[in-house]
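Input record (Table S2, row 443):
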Amino acid sequence: MHHLLRMIKMRFDALVIGGGITGLFTALDLSLRGFRVALVERGLIGGGTSGKMHNLIHSGARYVTNDIESATECASEGKVLRRIARPFIRDTGGLFVDVDGDDEFYGEFINGLKKTGIEYRELSREEALKIEPRLSESVVRAVWVPDGVVYPLSLMTSVAVAAHDNGAIIGQFLKLEAFELRSDKIERAVVRDMVKGELLRLEADVYVNTAGPWVGEVAEKAGVEVSVLPTAGAMVVLNGLLNNLVLNRLRPPSDGDIIVPFNGHSVIGTTASLVESIDELSFSDEEIQFLIEEASAMVPDVKRYGVKAVYGSVRPLIKMGGAGGREVSRKFEVYRHDKPANMVSAVGGKFSTGRLMGESIGNVVARMMGSSKESRTREYVLPELREPRDFADHNLPLIDEDAHFLTSLSSTSQGLASDNLWIYSLALISLMRLHRQKLMRLD
Ligand SMILES: Cc1cc2nc3c(=O)[nH]c(=O)nc-3n(C[C@H](O)[C@H](O)[C@H](O)COP(=O)(O)OP(=O)(O)OC[C@H]3O[C@@H](n4cnc5c(N)ncnc54)[C@H](O)[C@@H]3O)c2cc1C
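Output record (flavin-adenine dinucleotide complex):
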């Protein structure tokens, strides 16, 4: 085994572990501040929670009654993302629909919207039906808010390309296996090249743990404990599109209360159940039926459309004393560890606030490196991708195609010197783009 452990000659300022929305925006943030950055992702970019979520850019309205801080963060980040990531967001708008019996919550909800300054419009039943004709007869009124839909894999690819353009190395199929520690610091990371099977050693000044729900697992390898509340959620993709706007049930956040229009399909979500194993998710027929039942209170036709697929992922929520998956705040924390003194871990957040998380991590790392350079991601307009966004994000065929993709990846990387991670990461990104184009023809 030892002869396979190769040292990468380059030394980095920061090594980011995990290529979800948080890690990618961290890599972009740090590279724009002039740091030499490498990111290692054990699979494909977005292969964790960020590529398998509900695809909603929150207006913040969902959290106005129970989590004001998250609501405010989502509201302001929504505006930033629409400026820097315009091609990847659809401004569908969202409706919070008041189904007969939900009325108690209405006043509290409107007060929360006023307090957080989120734009809204109260609609009568007739006005709501004009923009969303399939709403149930039990809907008595609705509130319009600026919810949107995001194409997460396209957006993440664009952040990866932007980080790469600014000098970051974005390596896919590179899994952090271990840290080599000396006194109270990490000296090196040992990373497995999942395509060739060999182990590589990477050196950096700071190690950033953005492994999402796996953040505890990665921290453990450095001998530190980071507690995460792994909360799984299921989403049901229907055989067709029933809604034009993001539909939310006007009640405190609960299971099965959102229907997102995405890529020609309505996607119902979601659930929140604590799980033991993050890597082996399964959802029962009862859970799926429950989601359909709940969503049908807003749109009865949901029951007439068959289920095309079910997918799910795990929220990396902050562990808070006594609180379960639904009560836990969606805000995030960035920890600078005492030991090892050159490690930072990030927990919590939302896809919608991933850029802000990257900025906060960037601030901590910049301080550690003695730099006063400010974050630039708030203004940095992300590159457009060539392929049409509507086809780039189909979660389902992506999974079917993985085997073929790995084969082509493997044969391409055989021809490259793997020390030369610059080329390697470039090849991976362009292969990923090709892969997405293949999906276009599939659909
Ligand atoms: C069911 C569900 C629905 C959601 N819907 C929404 C929504 O509609 N809108 C919204 O804003 N938010 C939503 N969220 C929340 C949001 O998806 C997450 O907060 C966010 O995507 C987390 O991003 P991340 O980068 O922190 O984690 P991840 O995306 O999980 O990224 C972590 C990465 O680390 C990698 N990794 C792990 N271990 C290693 C290792 N040893 N070496 C290298 N790499 C490693 C993983 O492969 C993974 O890609 C939802 C969450 C769930 C669970």
